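Hi V.,

Quick status before I head out on leave. The structure for the redesign project is tokenized and pasted below; the design run finished overnight.
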């Protein structure tokens, strides 16, 4: 079955008694037991809630995993995965990743004895050279934030199997609709479901999917013990958003390719980073492994003054953090999403004072291009 159809069908099997097409919102903290030593399968909503479970089963099916888990945010999802490790363990991490993830690793979990090495995970040889006896996992963004490098998951998976490492893939930018890392050898996927999966900038959520059932039991133990679970109202919003994932991403991508092609021909734009452009270094690799290139664009303008001009003069495109919603958003990574990355690393990576990140929405593309054109005019 096509994954777009699978997404639309999430939750339709739930309420056989009434035949409700929409998943009910079980706004309850606890559940009555039918008798001593008996359970309906639900006892307390931290441990399991029917609305949340519908979402968790749905994302597991879309991603091809054994079990899914829903959290109160994408960062809560990643934090719970780090509980799989103990003091002294080492992880290799994508170097140009979301600044909040970097903050979580370096400012919080490093205090508990975990260590992290940041490098270009699109370079399998560099990853191999960074492995030590203490290395336990490789954490990658399948499409990096904000420079849009694509990870060769099959090659990295082979490397991880040979070294007994877990491969954790943050697949937020691509979603299962465009790429399923578990099919290519990853062990765990993680999503900020706030983004494309919910798709409407109206809820904050995180999801993980685990391929191995035994590993999934460990993840569930941590989810239940720590309790940063997603509430039923937000679970329902993510389910609703996922049902239109296919049609939204088709439009997002169509718009993104047209805008990226337009931007690269503008005299005030120095560089455009979009993997759908043939000149992008990972274009062929993505054509091999994915169903599309996503809808995130990074671009560098020719002088710093143009940054503020673009941020303040666009009218349809909102100057706001986050991404993946139906509305187009533009951000300035150096001072917003990636401010927690050390300045010297930002500079080396090219996250500088002329780089902007554009989350392309589903508006009419000609209107979006006109908005950018007007903002670039002095």
């Amino acid at each position: 079955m096509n994954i777009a159809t699978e997404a639309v069908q999430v939750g339709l099997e739930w309420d056989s008694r009434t035949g409700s097409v929409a998943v009910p919102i079980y706004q309850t903290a606890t559940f009555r037991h039918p008798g001593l030593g008996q359970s309906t399968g639900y006892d307390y909503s931290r441990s399991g809630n029917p609305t949340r479970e519908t979402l968790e089963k749905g994302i597991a099916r879309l991603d091809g995993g054994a079990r899914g888990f829903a959290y109160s945010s994408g960062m809560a999802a990643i934090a719970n995965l780090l509980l799989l490790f103990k003091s002294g363990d080492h992880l290799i991490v994508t170097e140009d990743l979301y600044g909040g993830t970097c903050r979580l690793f370096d400012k919080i979990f490093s205090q508990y004895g975990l260590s992290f090495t940041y490098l270009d995970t699109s370079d399998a040889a560099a990853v191999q050279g960074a492995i030590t006896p203490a290395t336990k996992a490789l954490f990658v963004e399948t499409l990096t934030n904000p420079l849009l490098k694509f990870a060769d998951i099959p090659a990295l998976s082979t490397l991880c199997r040979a070294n007994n490492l877990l491969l954790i893939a943050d697949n937020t930018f691509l979603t299962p609709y465009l790429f399923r890392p578990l099919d290519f050898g990853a062990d765990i996927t993680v999503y900020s479901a706030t983004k494309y999966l919910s798709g409407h900038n109206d809820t904050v959520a995180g999801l993980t999917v685990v391929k191995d059932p035994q590993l999934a039991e460990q993840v569930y133990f941590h989810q239940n013990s720590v309790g940063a679970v997603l509430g039923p109202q937000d679970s329902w919003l993510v389910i609703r958003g996922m049902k239109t994932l296919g049609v939204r991403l088709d439009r997002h991508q169509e718009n993104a390719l047209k805008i990226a092609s337009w931007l690269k021909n503008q005299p005030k734009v120095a560089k455009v980073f979009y993997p759908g452009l043939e000149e992008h270094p990972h274009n062929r690799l993505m054509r091999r492994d994915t169903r599309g290139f996503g809808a995130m664009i990074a671009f560098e303008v020719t002088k710093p003054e143009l940054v503020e001009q673009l941020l303040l003069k666009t009218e349809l495109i909102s100057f706001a953090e986050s991404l993946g919603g139906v509305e187009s958003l533009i951000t300035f990574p150096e001072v917003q999403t990636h401010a927690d990355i050390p300045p010297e690393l930002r500079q080396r990576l090219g996250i500088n004072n002329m780089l902007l990140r554009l989350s392309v929405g589903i508006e009419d593309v000609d209107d979006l291009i006109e908005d950018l054109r007007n903002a670039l005019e002095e």
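Above is the designed sequence. The chain has a mean pLDDT of 95.

G. will cover questions while I'm gone.

Best,
W.
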